[in-house]
């Protein structure tokens, strides 16, 4: 039957609310505010009427570079205080209005270019003079070499070294060419330096374009090696485990012998700690006999503990190896389980995409606000209306303000006065909390699905004949049909703990400069405690989902039963956990290390395949394909081994339940493998 119905209803209500917020955000938001630059009249560059003009050009870039600007401060810095228009291409050279161009009889069309001026002015028909056009910022009075970055024309720092001398005579610019260059570099140099990696990015993209088939081949090799490693564990697990144990014992024995040799050597030289005294040079302590004697004693104690552990826990180690072998067999009968991480990945991708889109639409909701701004005037009349009056860029006319002829209608920010906008912060919090809950639910669904599939393998009396058809699909449908509430319950507990951790990190970040040592210590303890609590809840949830998949009970009962069962077999839990961790670490090392070394030799040109047309010398950075292959191999190995780890945990809980509930009689036969029964000296009674 359905479990934790109340939590299921709550989760569905939250999901419906989340969908509602997404719909409202989609109705009120406009991501173009972030994706595309906006000119001074509020039109977007690169879309709509400006489809062929994707770049934003600043008339007076010096105003953007100025560190102190009255208008920018008054308007909260939302806009660079100069006219901005959409252009097809960013200027690539130097140009400025000369003093002779300001003569009254000079036609504006001979001074300016139409595509560099605001669309509202027609240079061929206008009756305004060049000075009037410059004062109203209808056309730029100078421009310098720029480079496009994020749809904006930023100064080309390298091109500024060729700035002509006549720029020192241009009205409105600093009297010194060096001052002009310094002002631009100081104001926008950090921005340009941030985009100087564009050329490197282009080269890296070229490397990927030429090497992508071989990168894909490397990832396929990683997938094949991971699969083979898991399937062969049924044969190689005992050998690998005992070889690793023998290697550990051998390393300890060698360390003991080396320490004794060093101790005996320095003992003959009569080098003691009393001859050295106290010193900060720790290398000196390695030249006295007491140091090596102490290390010798420590290694002997550790070696003795390891040997005693192996003697007393040998049966539990054999059980762990048998369960690992059984897990390899289970995966061999359910190959589709190895593909399930792709389902989890897709669902997580949907959650992340929905959260990001909702956050973006919420952040860009609200109507744009335009205000009257005098860009080139400091008169009292202009300052009175500067940034205080709203306007409509479509119907604005500067003649409405004769006392301030340079007035313009400029976009400032987005309206925050509506009911939807006033609750923007609360909606973003809801978006973040619902996102965390959905992500944890998707992970829980994956764990419960795999646990149900592997449990159906263990409880099949005759393997593989009694294994149900399509066990992974059946387990997935069963989890969605009956256990959404239980999975949501466990995910909610984990989400609340993660929210507390986020709040603690936020408090620590905001109050770091004002904290005293006691406050820092208290926050550090709180963060450490909640980190440990999160790890424990993840462990508890994982085993609770396994019990839910086996018995179909609610979350609290399943968590209690799983925890009690594990505590009654705590030694077996520790041994199995460590043995599995060692094997999976070794497996990841084999996959990632092997494929990484192979890709290094290939992409660096040290080895070539027969008939290979790929030339490693043509790569700009051969290490980028290597990093991609190594990172991709790790993700692939992690995905495969996470399924394997879930299989081991599920079979282990089933094994413990089998031991406690069954006795090998005809009415209660054991479901464990013959190898496990042999290790435990148990057997099933045969019918006469």
Automatic annotation (TrEMBL):
Cross-referenced Pfam families, in alphabetical order? Choline_transpo (PF04515)
Q: Which domain of life is it from?
A: Eukaryota
Q: Tell me where the transmembrane regions lie.
A: 7-28, 211-232, 239-257, 292-313, 338-363, 434-461, 482-504, 544-563, 583-602, 622-644
Transport: is it a keyword of this entry?
yes
Instruction: List the keywords (alphabetical).
Output: Antiport, Cell membrane, Glycoprotein, Membrane, Transmembrane, Transmembrane helix, Transport
Q: In which compartments does the protein localize?
A: Apical cell membrane; Cell membrane; Membrane
Family indicated by similarity: Belongs to the CTL (choline transporter-like) family.
What is its biological role? Choline transporter.
Q: What is this protein called?
A: Choline transporter-like protein
């Amino acid at each position: 039957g359905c479990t934790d119905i109340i939590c299921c209803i709550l989760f569905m209500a939250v999901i419906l609310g989340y969908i509602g917020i997404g719909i409202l955000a989609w109705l009120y938001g406009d991501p173009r505010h972030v994706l595309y630059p906006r000119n001074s009249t509020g039109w977007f560059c690169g879309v709509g009427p400006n489809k062929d003009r994707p770049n934003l050009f600043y008339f007076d870039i010096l105003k953007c570079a100025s560190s102190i600007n009255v208008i920018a401060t008054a308007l909260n810095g939302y806009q660079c205080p100069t006219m901005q228009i959409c252009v097809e291409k960013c200027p690539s050279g130097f140009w400025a209005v000369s003093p002779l161009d300001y003569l009254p009889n000079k036609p504006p069309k001979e001074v300016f270019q139409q595509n560099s001026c605001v669309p509202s002015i027609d240079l061929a028909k206008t009756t305004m003079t060049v000075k009037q056009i410059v004062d109203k910022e209808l056309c730029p009075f100078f421009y310098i070499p720029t480079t496009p970055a994020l749809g904006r024309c930023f100064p080309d720092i390298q091109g500024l070294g060729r700035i002509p001398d006549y720029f020192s005579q241009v009205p409105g610019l600093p009297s010194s060419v060096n001052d002009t260059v310094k002002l631009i570099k100081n104001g926008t140099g950090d921005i340009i330096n941030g985009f100087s990696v564009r050329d490197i990015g282009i080269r890296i993209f070229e490397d990927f374009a030429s090497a992508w088939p071989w990168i894909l081949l490397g990832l396929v090799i990683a997938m094949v090696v991971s699969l083979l490693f898991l399937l062969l564990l049924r044969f190689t697990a005992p050998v690998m485990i005992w070889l690793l144990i023998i290697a550990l014992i051998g390393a300890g024995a060698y360390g003991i012998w080396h320490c004794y040799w060093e101790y005996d050597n320095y003992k003959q030289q009569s080098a003691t700690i009393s001859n050295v005294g106290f010193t900060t040079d720790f290398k000196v302590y390695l030249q006295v006999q007491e140091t090596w004697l102490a290390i010798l004693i420590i290694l002997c104690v550790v070696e003795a503990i390891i040997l005693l552990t192996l003697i007393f826990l040998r049966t539990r180690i054999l059980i762990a190896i048998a369960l690992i072998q059984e897990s390899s067999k289970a995966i061999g009968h359910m190959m589709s389980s190895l593909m399930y991480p792709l389902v989890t990945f897709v669902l997580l991708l949907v959650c992340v995409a929905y959260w990001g889109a909702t956050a973006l639409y919420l952040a860009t909701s609200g109507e744009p606000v335009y205000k009257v701004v005098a860009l080139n005037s400091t008169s009292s009349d202009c300052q009175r209306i500067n940034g205080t009056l709203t306007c409509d860029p479509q119907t604005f006319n500067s003649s409405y303000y004769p006392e301030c002829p340079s007035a313009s209608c400029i976009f400032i920010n987005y309206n925050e006065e509506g009911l939807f906008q006033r609750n923007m912060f609360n909606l973003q919090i809801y978006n973040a909390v619902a996102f965390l809950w959905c992500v944890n639910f998707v992970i829980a669904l994956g764990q419960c699905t795999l646990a149900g599939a592997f449990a159906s393998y263990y409880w099949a009396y005759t393997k593989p004949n009694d294994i149900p058809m399509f066990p992974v699909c059946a387990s997935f449908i069963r989890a969605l049909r009956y256990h959404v509430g239980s999975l949501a319950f466990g995910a909610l507990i984990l989400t609340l703990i993660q929210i507390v951790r986020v709040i603690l990190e936020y408090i620590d970040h905001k109050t770091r400069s004002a904290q005293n040592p006691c406050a820092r210590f208290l926050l550090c303890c709180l963060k450490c405690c909640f980190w440990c609590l999160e790890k424990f809840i993840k462990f508890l949830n994982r085993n609770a989902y396994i019990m839910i998949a086996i018995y179909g009970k609610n979350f609290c009962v399943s968590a209690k039963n799983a925890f009690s069962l594990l505590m009654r077999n705590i030694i077996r839990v520790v041994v199995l956990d460590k043995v599995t961790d060692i094997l999976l670490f070794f497996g990841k090392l084999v996959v990632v290390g092997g494929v990484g070394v192979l890709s290094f030799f290939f992409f660096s040109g040290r080895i070539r395949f027969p008939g290979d047309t790929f030339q490693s010398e043509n790569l700009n950075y051969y290490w980028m394909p290597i990093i991609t292959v190594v990172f991709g191999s790790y993700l692939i190995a992690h995905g495969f081994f996470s399924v394997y780890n879930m299989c081991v945990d599920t079979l282990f809980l089933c094994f413990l339940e089998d031991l406690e509930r069954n006795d090998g009689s005809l009415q209660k036969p054991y479901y464990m493998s013959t190898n496990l029964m042999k290790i435990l000296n148990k057997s099933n009674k045969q019918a006469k």
